[in-house]
Design brief:
Layout: E1 2-3, E2 6-7, H1 11-24, E3 31-34, E4 41-43, E5 51-59, E6 65-72, E7 77-84, E8 87-93, E9 99-103, E10 114-121, E11 124-129, E12 132-137, E13 157-159, E14 185-195, E15 204-205, E16 210-211
Antiparallel strand pairs: 1-2, 3-14, 4-13, 4-16, 5-10, 5-14, 6-7, 6-13, 7-8, 8-9, 10-11, 11-12, 14-15
Length: about 210
């Protein structure tokens, strides 16, 4: 007896194949950055409004490296996520001065996949890595001012590093030193944006615009 051309007696082998596919299919959406002096990936701009979020997953054995960066040099607002001594650090300015959040309860350069969430909920900003988190409250008189620059003048979102031409145009960056950060070497997948300012109710997976 057969089902869809597969013998019932072969069910155990089919089950093994399905388990194998379930393991590798999520990784098919991942891409690898080599960590060279010119490697990076570019995604569309993120509308980092008062209530917004972005998330992604990474895997590496590298202890230090730039994971994600975007900014608006006209307002000096920026958002940077990087690995520092195997911990994940978020450094940002959304109108209330520079802030730093760090999650390092474990070493995240262990070659396993880890999920990072950056959540802006009113005056509260939270960095989460897997089940650990750190947060800060930026108390301001005008909550609407706690946004990441202006979408029309924001930079693209860069993963793993920035295009090398930024080293000759440092004034185009809110944080010029980011152009010289160690580049990320490892795998990256599932960059998601939640942009409530655009009316979105659910996170949206982002497609890569450029890759090197």
């Amino acid at each position: 007896m057969s089902l869809f051309g597969i013998n019932i007696s072969d069910c155990w082998s089919v089950k093994s194949i399905l388990v194998f596919l379930a393991t590798i299919l999520p990784q098919m959406s991942a891409f690898v950055l080599e960590g060279s002096k010119t490697s990076y990936a570019q995604f569309r701009k993120w509308d980092g409004g008062t209530n917004s979020a972005l998330s992604f997953e990474f895997r590496t054995e590298q202890t230090d490296g730039l994971l994600l960066y975007t900014d608006d040099s006209s307002t000096c607002d920026f958002l940077e996520v990087k690995l520092v001594a195997s911990a994940v650090r978020l450094r940002f300015n959304t109108g209330f001065g520079g802030q730093i959040l760090t999650v390092g309860q474990q070493k995240y350069s262990d070659g396993s996949w880890h999920k990072v969430d950056v959540i802006k909920n009113g005056a509260n900003t939270t960095l989460s890595v897997d089940k650990a988190s750190d947060s800060v409250i930026c108390d301001g008189e005008e909550l609407e001012s706690l946004v990441l620059g202006n979408l029309s003048s924001n930079q693209y979102v860069y993963v793993g590093g920035l295009p090398s031409w930024y080293t000759t145009k440092l004034k185009a960056l809110a944080v010029p030193s980011v152009a010289f950060e160690p580049r990320f070497r490892g795998s990256f997948r599932n960059l998601m944006y939640l942009e409530t300012g655009t009316g979105a109710a659910d996170p949206e997976k982002q497609e890569m615009m450029a890759y090197k």
